[in-house]
Structures are given as C-alpha cells and as structure tokens.
Amino acid sequence: MKKISIMTAIGILFGSLMLSSSAYALNLRFNVLFSPKHPLCREGFVPWTKEVKKVTDGRVKVTMFYSNALFKPKQAYDSITSRAADMGIIVAVYQRNRRILNNVMDLPLVAGEKAVVNSIVLQELFQTTPEMQQELEDVKILWAYMNPAFQLHFTKKRVESLADLKNLVVSAGGQTQSRIVESLGASVEAMPMTEVYLAMQKGVIEGCFLPYAPLRTQKIANLLNHHTDANLMATSFFIGINKSVWAKISPEDQKAIERISGMAASRKMGEIFDRGQARDTKWMAKKGDTFYKLTSSQKAEWAEMIKPIRYEWINDAKNKGYSNPEALLTRALKLMEEKSK
Questions:
Q1: Which of 35, 55, 164, 341 could form a disulfide with 159 if both were Cys (CB 3.0 to 4.6 A apart)?
Q2: CA distances from 90 to 51, 95, 240 (A)
Q3: Which domains does the chain have, with CATH numbers?
Q4: What span, in angstroms and rounded, lies between the C-alpha atoms of 120 and 131?
Q5: Three-class SS of residue 158?
Q6: What is the pLDDT of residue 24?
C-alpha cells in the first residue's frame, strides 16, 4: 500500500507540474521584418523577448520568426487579427487609406534625422490621440518607433541641387516616397528595398531614396558613392499583438510587459537606429563616399515643392470623416521641434 501511495503521489506531483507549465507558458509567435543579424533584432527585439520571459517569471515567452516567415509586411494588421501570428510589426503606410492618421509622421519634412526623436514623438502622439488608436483598435499596440530620415543616395553623380537631380532614375518604395521623388524632378522606379541592389547593379536605377540604416546590411552601400542629406521623411512602425492572445495574459503580467514596452522600447529602438547610422556612415566615409547637406535656402526650396503632399493628406483625412487633421499635423511638428532641442 505504501508503494502504491508513493507512486500515486509522484504521479500527481508530475502531472500537476506538467499542467502548471502548460497552463502558464504562453508562447507568442512574433513575425519580424528583419533578419536575425539586423541590429534591431540583435539589440532590440531579442533583448525585449528575454525581458518578457524574465518579468513574467517564464509565464509568457516570445518566439521570433525572422524575415517575414509568417506573413508579408503588407498583410501585418490582418494577419495579427486573424492569428496567422500572435504579434508583428505593422507599417501604417502600407495601408494608408485605412490608417491615414497613423501616417502623420510619415509626411514630408515632419520626422527628422534622429530616429530616437522621431520615435519618441510618434509614441507620444499615439498614446494621447484616441483617433490614432481607433485606427489600430483591433490589435493591442505595445509600442511604436521610427527610422531616421530618408536621404538620397547615388552611384555616380554627386547631387547638390534640383538641377542635378532632374531626370535621374531613383528607386522609391511607397506612395509617399514616390511622390516626393517625383515632386523634386527625378524619375521614379517603384520597387521594394529588396530589389534595389540588383536594379542598381544592372544600371536600371541611378540612385535610391532610403534611410542610411538598410544600405549596408542590404549591400546597397557597396554600389553607392554619393549621398545627399535632405531629411525628407521617415517611416512609422507599430508593434501589435492579437487582442485575444493579450487577454490570455494575466493583468499583472500585462502590466509587467507594458513597463518594458511603450516609451522605453520606443526610445531604445530609435537609439539603435541612430547608433547604426553613425557606424555605417563612418564606414561609408572611410571607403571614400561623399556627403552633401542642403543649405537653408535649398531646404526651403525643396520644402515648397513637396509640401502639397501634406495638403493631399489633409484632404484625404477629411474625406474619411476626420474633422481637424491639421491639428494633428501641427502638434506633430511642434513636438518634433520641442524634442529636437
């Protein structure tokens, strides 16, 4: 009888341990845009996943799926709501018409050179603007961040003026990027970033419109020799998690995860971008690349040519029922000015 009772006790203990681990270890599948070697993954996302495990005492774990293994970037929002993945990176510009207010920081000459400033402003805007939150209300947004400003990069020609840029064939990825490049007088070749290297190598394009951040990791920098710094725009990213999955996490663990997300995570992602840009531009300068910064008068001239894109955004937002999108844009510009000091 003693032997049976001991075996029974061991079985009950083992079973309870198995039940407790399966009940509490919630494993979140996180679809990420980037490869494992990307600085944002190595220095940002991976450390965050370790922190999640730590602050929840192992009750919540995060498994990374790199390079869009679970869904494509344009499908992010719908894929997260349908649980093709539990969480992922939402790029609002890919669904501009559905997320128009969340494109405010992507407008020409709103975001600036420093990703950390851009990210802080976007996070603050999102936290304090109910209309922006409503556009993404089907998912739980953990934090938002931005890259440094887009610049113009060229293989052979040093561009110091609009006259130099006229009719050059330049790649651009999205609608706003293409409109900016066209407005400045260049010829646009629309393509995703992953196709830029081959197109440049074959001579299909003479330049590209991108931040510095991906140039070296995508090997595009190997083909470039000249850069024109104009700080024309940047891109907004939102880390979203499926709401039903978020609801499975206890309130205590939710609060713990929120403490390591939000503004803290937003700032960290911006800092990673800025460190990477400083490191990569130093490397480019060492290989002999040239860098030209627009003068104040040139900035004013270029701004006049691309500002109409802002007015189109205002009209589009009003047509969707938003009464005062100008106020949101004005607030974004004011915050950028304050946080840049």
A1: 164
A2: 22, 9, 7
A3: 26-341 (3.40.190.170)
A4: 18
A5: coil
A6: 54
Cα atoms found within 13 Å of the Cα of residue 260, Cβ hemisphere only = 17
Distance between CA 95 and CA 74 in Å, rounded? Answer: 7
Q: Quick one: pLDDT at residue 95?
A: 83
- The whole-angstrom separation of Cα 161 and Cα 51 is 47
Residues of the chain predicted below pLDDT 50:
1-4, 7-12, 14-23
The pLDDT assigned to 16 comes to 45
Confidence at residue 25, expressed as pLDDT on a 0 to 100 scale? 81
CB 296 within 8 A of CB 71: no
Nearest 5°: the CA angle 112, 89, 307 is 30
SS3 160: coil
And the tokens for 251?
Answer: 């309130």
Closest C-alpha among 72, 132, 142 to residue 103: 132
Q: Which amino acid is at 115?
A: A
Among the listed residues 118, 76, 72, the one whose alpha carbon sits nearest the alpha carbon of residue 95: 76
SS (H, E, C) 105-143: HHCCCCCCCCHHHHHHHHHHHHHHCHHHHHHCCCEEEEE
- The sheet that has 139-146: what strands, in order across it? 60-65, 26-31, 87-91, 236-242, 139-146
